[in-house]
Write a structure and sequence with these properties.
The chain is built from 12 helices and 20 strands. A hairpin with a 7-residue loop joins strand 19 and strand 20. By secondary structure, the chain is α/β, with parallel strands linked by helices. The radius of gyration is 22 Å and the shape is globular. Helix 3 crosses helix 4 and helix 5 (about 155-175) crosses helix 6 (about 185-195). The chain is about 30% helix and about 20% strand.
């Protein structure tokens, strides 16, 4: 019953899509457990280049069922559009996709509220993706959300909307002074969503458990990263879900003991999109060079990602929370051009040296990184798939990351394609 959790170990965008695609060739199920279409997973394989926002990355592998779990928030319009795009690319999604009946839906008013709230925050804006993620999760915890199952009973949905929409409309019209949203507008959309998505809405928790119980293999597809976690991230500059190991269990209704392998996906450097503290951020030509070479622009919003040195303090913290059984280092090739590299091994704060990030965002903003400098490598790593070919200094760099993370580096990614992968230790599902 192996279940592999693939978790973002930094601020998201670590290259999880490629690793999930790689592993899913031997999986029975690939299941998303958190976030929504704020995520953008890039997959490049024999079928082409794809950006997935909601559909799990196992969609390209034959015989794999793809599951959108209860912990995900689903914008039905986005899901339908993504399914249509995949269909045009020759990939028929309809028979290999399921949506949990318990997943909450992102309604058009959630998208409006996200944008309006960000505008209201002014200089204190979080820099959200504007996809309605926060408002949808807020409604979930306020017990005023709409779930996928509600689409299957449109009369019941009408009653539900009669209950929740008046308050939403008071906020829209009185607080933000914009137009209200009508029940008929939402119901018309819901009818269309039901026609399209109705057959996919299922009790997926039970299905995933049955596959695990019968010895099947499940890949749990994380979105975002631990430093954007609502509890363990750099609050309030976080997303509204739990991209951590706990979220993998609650977001799919599987037991923690069923998760046999926990893979922490780390970029060989750090990036972040949106506002919030970033102790190792680079503001110079080195940062600009990395951004340009690595095309560090958001898959979902197109925004330039902030770039910085690898942060060993946050990496060790990430491992403490998630308990990785394997670390994966991605985008090592991006650093090929550098003569020397810094790694953050501690934080200086008010005369003390810290080996854990402080919980408060103001204190983290005040931390300055303590760096160790390593030599760059003279032979490029791009495209290498055998560990014996890795230049010595690149090996030294990865070994140091391994020490700081505190868990073995089992996979190194040296390029976007499936083949550009070094399997240091074979952890693949047999
Ligand atoms: P939200 O998830 O749209 O509410 O955005 C909250 C914060 O999380 C913002 O700083 C976003 O830039 C960031 N964020 C959300 N999703 C991702 C992602 O998939 N990759 C990187 N950053 C993300």
């Amino acid at each position: 019953m192996p279940a592999y959790a693939i978790l973002g170990a930094q601020w998201g965008d670590e290259g999880k899509g490629k690793i999930i695609d790689y592993l899913s060739r031997r999986a029975d199920i690939v299941a998303r457990f958190s976030g929504g279409n704020n995520a953008g997973h890039t997959v490049i394989n024999d079928l082409g280049d794809f950006s997935l926002h909601l559909v799990p990355c196992g969609i390209f592998s034959d015989g794999v069922m793809n599951v959108i779990g209860n912990g995900v928030v689903v914008d039905p319009d986005v899901l339908i559009e993504e399914m249509e795009t995949l269909k045009q690319g020759g990939i028929d999604v309809s028979r290999s996709l399921m949506v949990s009946e318990r997943a909450h839906l992102i309604m058009p008013y959630h998208v409006m509220l996200d944008t309006l709230a960000e505008r209201e925050r002014g200089d204190f804006a979080i820099g959200t993706t504007g996809k309605g993620i926060g408002p949808a999760y807020s409604d979930k915890t306020s017990r005023t959300g709409i779930r996928a199952a509600d689409l299957l009973d449109l009369e019941g949905l009408r009653h539900r909307l009669e209950e929740v929409l008046p308050f939403v409309n008071r906020v829209l019209t009185k607080v933000y002074e914009v137009d209200s949203v009508s029940i008929d507008y939402i119901l018309d959309k819901s009818r269309m969503w039901k026609d399209f998505l109705g057959p996919l809405i299922k009790p997926v928790g039970r299905y995933v458990n049955e596959v695990l119980d019968s010895g099947g293999t499940v890949v749990l597809e994380g979105a975002q990263g631990i430093l954007l976690d609502l509890d363990h991230g750099t609050y309030p500059f976080v997303t509204s879900s739990s991209p951590t190991i706990g979220g993998a269990s609650t977001g799919l209704a599987i037991q923690p003991k069923q998760i046999t392998n926990v893979l922490g996906i780390f970029k060989a450097y750090n990036t972040r999109v949106g506002s919030g503290p970033f102790p190792t951020e680079l503001f110079d030509d080195v940062g600009e060079g990395i951004r340009t070479i690595a095309k560090e622009f958001g898959t979902t919003t197109g925004r330039a990602r902030r770039v910085g040195w690898f942060d060993g303090v946050l990496a060790s913290y990430s491992n403490r929370i998630n308990g990785y059984t394997s670390a994966v280092i991605t985008r090592l090739d991006v650093l090929d051009h550098l003569d020397s590299l810094n790694i953050c091994v501690g934080y200086k704060l008010d005369g003390d040296i810290l080996d854990e990030p402080p919980g408060g965002v103001a204190a983290l903003e005040k931390c300055s990184p303590v760096y160790e400098t390593l030599d760059g490598w003279d032979v490029p790593t791009a495209g290498i798939s055998n560990i014996s070919e890795l230049p010595t200094n690149a090996r030294v760099y990865v070994d140091r990351l391994e020490e700081l993370i505190g868990c073995p580096v089992d996979i190194i990614s040296t390029g976007p394609h499936r083949d550009h992968t070094i399997m240091v230790r074979d952890i693949l599902i047999s």
